[in-house]
Design a protein that fits this description.
alpha/beta, Purple Acid Phosphatase, chain A, domain 2
Length: 263
């Protein structure tokens, strides 16, 4: 029997439930293997854009919210749901609170050890999303198409005994590099943390898991559950790490350049 991994805080983002590419079963398996005092759902949990365009809601998507409710009931986990751009329909009810254990917000300040961490999905500083929404939707269609091609391509690679390769993520990264999107995104979020008198920023949105220093600000990005299958976790000493869900239902723990497999 596997030992449950216990954390003070877990942050997941960009599940895109309702879209074809969402790895709902994997994130449910991940949460079942953990316990935490606080769970942050940092935006794009439900993909309202895809659901409007004909995406389908499946039992595995409902299972995610069932496991979250179970964490609230059995572990006393506090859940904070931060609105993202793909679940912007939540704007109609924000701020929302259900008892002491569940709330929906636009952002959140978390006390982590002796540091304050500003938590936001991150789309606020994405010029493509905030200023040219029609182009963001067009890009979303292209990304979804590339994810479909990925499935076909990686079935062939699997048959050849080759590892998974994401050309959709590769193309997306190359385009963002061309416009300096990622670095500008990270720098502006670091400035946002400073403006809120915080020492760190926790975000998602760009599907690029990361922990690094930007000047005096600690920048953390939880990645996604479409391709990266990653989460941020805070231990009880206030230290943050990236955790990846591996293909053999093991968790891969990242600490700088060292990797340790946890059973």
């Amino acid at each position: 029997m596997k030992t449950m991994n216990q954390y003070k805080t877990i942050v997941v983002s960009d599940l895109h439930l309702g879209s074809e590419g969402s790895k709902a079963k994997e994130v449910v398996a991940f949460l079942k293997s953990t316990s935490c005092d606080r769970l942050i759902l940092n935006g794009d949990i439900i993909d309202g854009w895809q659901l409007k365009k004909g995406g389908s809601w499946k039992k595995k998507h409902t299972a995610f919210f069932r496991i979250v409710l179970k964490m609230i009931e059995t572990q006393g986990t506090k859940v904070v749901y931060i609105r993202g751009n793909h679940d912007d329909f939540l704007d109609q009810i924000i701020p929302f609170r259900l008892g002491k254990q569940f709330c929906i917000r636009k952002d959140y300040i978390l006390q982590s050890g002796n540091k304050k961490m500003f938590i936001t999905h991150g789309d606020l500083f994405d010029s493509v999303t905030s200023k040219m929404k029609w182009l963001a939707h067009l890009g979303d269609i292209g990304y979804t198409f590339l994810l479909s091609l990925n499935k076909i391509y990686n079935r062939y690679r699997s048959w050849r005994g080759l590892p998974y390769y994401s050309f959709s993520q590769k193309i997306k990264q190359q385009v963002k590099k061309a416009v300096n999107h990622v670095s500008e995104f990270e720098e502006k979020l670091a400035e946002l943390a400073l403006a809120h008198d915080c020492e760190g920023i926790i975000c998602g949105h760009i599907h690029k898991p990361e922990i690094k220093q930007i000047g005096e600000i600690t920048y953390l990005n939880s990645g996604d559950w479409v391709e990266s299958l990653s989460a941020l976790v805070e231990d009880f000493d206030g230290q943050w790490h990236l955790v990846y869900y591996a293909s053999m239902s093991e968790l891969m723990y990242e600490d700088d350049d060292n990797y340790e497999f946890l059973s």
